Amino acid sequence: MNAPWFEQQPQALREVEATLKAWYPTLHVFIEEKKCRIRGTYAVIDGGREIDRYKLEIALPDDYPRSLPRVWETAGRIKRDPDRHTFKDGALCLGTPLSLWIDLRGDFRIERVLEIPVRNFLIGNGLVELGEPWPHKERSHGARGLLEHFRELFGTGQPVMAATFLQAMAEDKVTKHSRCPCGSGRKLLKCHRDGFDALRRVPSYVLDETAQLILAEFDPRRLVA
Amino acid sequence: MSGNQYLKDLLKSQKLDETSNEWKELDDEAKKIERIIREAYPRSFVMFTHGGSRAKGTIIKEDYDLDEVTYFQNDDTAPGETLEEIYENIAKLLTKHYNIRRKRSALRLSMKDGRDLKVDVVPGRYVDKTNTDVFIHQNEGDKERLKTNIVKHIQHVRDSHCTDVIMLTKLWRTRNGIEIKTFPLELLAIVVLDEDNSGTLEDRFVRVLTAFANEIDGLQIEDPANPTGNDLSHSLTDKIRNSLSKVAADTLAAVEEHGWEHVFGKIEKEQAPPIPRVNILRSAAAGIAVPTKPWGPKP
Fold first, then answer.
1. Most buried pick, A89, A156, A160, B166, via CB within 10 A?
2. How far is B138 from B153, CA to CA, in rounded Å?
3. What is the per-residue pLDDT for B272?
4. Do B293 and A99 touch (CB under 8 A)?
5. How far is B293 from chain A (nearest CA, A)?
6. DSSP helix/strand/coil, A85
7. Any A CB within 8 A of B276 CB
8. Which residue of A has its CA nearest to B287?
9. How far apart are CA B250 and CA B233, in angstroms?
């Protein structure tokens, strides 16, 4: 078994520690059983002022910073409920894997994760606690949420089309001269090019995982019929 | 501003005075609990005392609760023959009015809608007719019964001459999410300052953090009410000691480089009139540069 990332690259761990000390002095790194965890409280700052504070635990992934850390709220403030956007183990569902990869451009360093999806989630949660809707909307659970994102990129949420296109992207079979999945008949180059450009940077395993999640929920035979 | 002045101001901002709404809410709830218990056991002489940080003078705004200590006479069997029966009967009684979470010896109350009341009810029975030491039931650990004395606990902390440092240490614990209960944390601070309590507030707080960072394994605590009978090791596990040490070292390093305000934040002055919280959050949401949408797996 390979040594964990923080043993292979001690400089990367020092950078995490230095970032926390400089920007998040109430979050702390703990190395336990060959895993890197961050614990403490996160202050939600806006306009230089603390507007909220959450107790968090963050598990940095084995391939840090190339994939998303898992984040838990640990003071019992966020109910463990899919409708509050938590996984079964209580980790926060910050977004779909594909949309987060695009939004963070595949750079999941701790400061980026804290300042983009985590901060967004916690501000939204604060509003939800007050009976307000999520400020930037929320995605549906499961494949429906993945398809909503696909629709934003390509103007269609047709499950088989989306899954097939994502798999073809994962296998590097799509170029800008391919037909756009939206059904316009035009080339991607002259249609949903921005969507194509966004997906082009995403690693194959993320595209394929998204396609598989869609196919697992939508039976193609039933949908075609 | 000097570090010492900053810490003094921080402490001032955390004081919860007796006219505050929070204090009044706790009092009202305590009276309600007392009435429920007295009505259920009209023939019992029940002693209600406020324990916890409020009685010790170490209450802080950011993390407070009320220990509603509920002691029955040593020959009173109305609430139950055994300590466990007393604990369970009080829990059953309060369940009609509140949601109950069973803690080691206390019952944590929340409203039926889930709102935490920040009140722990601690049932117990006096050891003898002197009405001093008390037996309380324990849900966890080796012993089901624990001898304790809330008055001695309160005196020990209140008369330690370091309640100011204890308040800062509690705030530091809360801000850093360290999983240590209040009483062992108070005892640790007292143990450290017992050797040397001289200097400014900053000197003394730094002394506590330095001891946590460098000597945590050597710090031993004991229950002043029951030094040999109450094993506090469960409240100071290796994991907790490690957390205290790591966080204290991180805090001292951050303070040395950036100062106290960097760690504890700007001390907010009371705004009049305060801006509604929903407006603050809406404004923050409007300023988000890269909006992300929460998702979820298929339920």
1. B166
2. 18
3. 61
4. yes
5. 5
6. coil
7. no
8. A46
9. 25
Low-confidence ranges of chain A (pLDDT < 50): 224-225
pLDDT for A117-162, tens place per residue? 999 999 999 999 999 999 999 999 999 999 999 999 999 999 999 9
Determine, for residues A138 and B295 on separate chains, whether the beta-carbon distance falls below 8 Å: yes
Domain boundaries along the sequence of chain B? 3-15+157-282, 21-148
Q: How many CB pairs under 8 A join A and B?
A: 149
Fold adopted by B3-15+157-282: Poly(a)-polymerase, middle domain (1.10.1410)
* Architecture field, domain B21-148: 2-Layer Sandwich (3.30)
Q: Name every chain A residue with its beta carbon within 8 A of the beta carbon of B290.
A: 103, 116, 120
Task: Provide the shortest C-alpha distance from residue B267 to chain A (in Å).
Answer: 10
Q: Does the beta-carbon distance from A46 to B268 stay under 8 Å?
A: no
Q: Cite the beta strand spans of B138-289 per DSSP E.
A: 145-148
d(CA B284, CA B288): 7
Interchain CB distance below 8 Å, B294 and A92: yes
* H or E element that contains A140: none
- The H or E element that residue B290 is part of is none
Work out whether strand B116-126 and strand B134-137 pair parallel, antiparallel, or are unpaired: antiparallel
| Upper half-sphere CA count for residue B126 (Cβ side, 13 Å) | 17
Residue with tokens 């409240």: B235
Would you call B272 an interface residue with chain A, using a CB distance cutoff of 8 Å?
Answer: no
Chain B residue numbers with beta carbons less than 8 Å from the beta carbon of A43 are: 265
E strand segments, B76-202 = 99-102, 107-110, 116-126, 134-137, 145-148
Asked if A135 and B242 come within 8 Å (Cβ–Cβ), the reply is no
Which residue type sits at B146?
L
- Here the tokens at position A93 are 């569902």
Residue A88 and residue B283: Cβ atoms within 8 Å? no
State how far residue A96 is from chain B, nearest Cα, in angstroms: 6
Each residue's pLDDT tens digit, B232-288: 888 899 999 999 999 999 999 999 999 999 999 988 776 567 789 999 999 999 999
**Model ipTM?**
0.92
